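Lab meeting, item 3. Inverse folding demo.
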């Protein structure tokens, strides 16, 4: 008998991609040292090429780094970056150029933690089945939220955006996990610590059903900007039952008809230098995920999405 597959494991929620995180930086030179020379990421060669902003490519996602009063995301950003030996060597070389800033890095049990010159925390993971086969990319953005907020936040995304969301209570604190693309999620982890005031940083997502969430947000008086035909914004995440504000983070919401959806992004091979140059290896090329589609890593991904789909349907 032919193998039976759980077809629901291939489903995606209505949010199809986490495209960028936007935080202001004070100095484009210091940002270059951290994001490109340290992390090994790639400045977009086509867009924002002046000194007032830079777009940094990481797989299919980006950091947007306009010049201004530094902003700090209240949480952590999770990246998948291969070759941690080279990553640690690059970060070590940045210790002197970034001295006097908040730059720091440390090797943890399952990731490398790096702090940008203005205090934003980046957690760099190796590629694994946890990240849906992504070899280079932005896997998650994790926010610190007040105690008791996780359940309402998960319900907000499920109801308003019709995307898969669940609350995980197995860790150190309850956390809402929200699917925002293939191998990507937003995590809202409860903390009893006092949260810093929101300073205006934002995230950007693409959605398939564009009008449905817009209508839901309008009904709750949450739309803050009608940007254009392809985009709107909102700021507050609320309890869908009571309307109580749970967390603030501006969302730039775009439709899949936006001309920039799925725009190809250039990613370089950071190991390539003038001293070890090999022709044809300037661009980063991912390794094969599996020799065949029934590889155990792919099966683990199917099971994880199946669980999330079942929880969202409840």
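The presenter then showed the designed sequence:
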């Amino acid at each position: 008998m032919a193998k039976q597959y759980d077809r629901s494991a291939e489903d995606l929620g209505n949010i199809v991609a986490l495209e960028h995180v936007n935080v202001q930086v004070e100095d484009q030179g210091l940002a270059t040292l951290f994001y490109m020379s340290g992390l090994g990421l790639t400045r977009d060669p086509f867009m924002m090429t002046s000194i007032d902003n830079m777009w940094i490519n990481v797989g299919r996602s980006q950091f947007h780094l306009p010049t201004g009063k530094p902003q700090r995301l209240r949480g952590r950003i999770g990246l998948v970056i291969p070759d941690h030996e080279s990553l640690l060597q690059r970060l070590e070389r940045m210790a002197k150029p970034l001295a006097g800033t908040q730059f720091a890095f440390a090797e943890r049990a399952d990731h490398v933690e790096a702090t940008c010159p203005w205090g934003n925390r980046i957690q760099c993971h190796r590629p694994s089945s946890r990240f849906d086969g992504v070899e280079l990319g932005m896997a998650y953005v994790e926010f610190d939220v007040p105690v008791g907020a996780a359940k309402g936040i998960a319900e907000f995304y499920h109801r308003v955006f019709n995307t898969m969301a669940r609350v995980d209570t197995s860790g150190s604190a309850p956390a809402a996990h929200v699917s925002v693309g293939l191998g990507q999620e937003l995590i809202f982890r409860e903390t009893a610590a006092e949260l810093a005031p929101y300073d205006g940083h934002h995230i950007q997502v693409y959605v398939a059903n564009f009008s449905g969430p817009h209508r839901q947000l309008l009904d709750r008086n949450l739309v803050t900007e009608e940007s254009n035909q392809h985009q709107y914004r909102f700021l507050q995440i609320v309890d869908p039952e009571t309307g109580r504000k749970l967390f603030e983070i501006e969302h730039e919401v775009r439709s899949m008809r936006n001309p920039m959806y799925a725009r190809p992004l250039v990613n370089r091979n950071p190991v390539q230098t003038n001293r070890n140059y090999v022709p044809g290896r300037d661009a980063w090329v991912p390794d094969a995920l599996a020799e065949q589609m029934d590889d155990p890593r792919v099966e683990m991904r199917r099971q994880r999405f199946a669980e999330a789909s079942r929880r969202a349907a409840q």
